[in-house]
Amino acid sequence: MTADPKVTIALEVNGEPAEVAFAPHKTLLEVLREDLNLTGTKHGCELGECGTCTVLLDGTPVLSCLVLGLACAGHKVKTVEGMAQAGRLHPLQETFADLGAAQCGYCTPAFLLAAAALLATNSKPTRQEIKEALAGNLCRCTGYIKIYEAVELAAARMRGEKVEPARETLYGRP
Question: What is the model's pTM?
Answer without folding.
Answer: 0.93
